[in-house]
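Input.
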Amino acid sequence: MTRPSLCYLTVSYAADLERFALLRHSLRLFSPDIPHLVYVDSEDVPLFTRRFGDERGIDIRPTLEVLPPEVEASRRLWRSWRGRLLDRLCWRLHLHRSYSGWKLQQVVKL
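Output.
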């Protein structure tokens, strides 16, 4: 089998599951033969695999495959309840996130 010269690349996470389902529906209707590579937050892989793993042409992978370990650890921290609490207090503690979720999604696409 020859490797496809084109594929869709999407980065997502659990909170976007329903939007991602709409995207998958559109891709199945209009371009079912084009592979779809999906990177999701590592802790969300089981959720996406349960929902979309049986679909043809989709490859769901964790972000830990492409993000450096320290960036993945930071991403996990900020997504945890501790990170959300720190996020609310950061203006008092003069802390900030190294990367926002959107910025990390762009890095994964590189």
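The CA atoms of residues 76 and 83 lie 8 Å apart.
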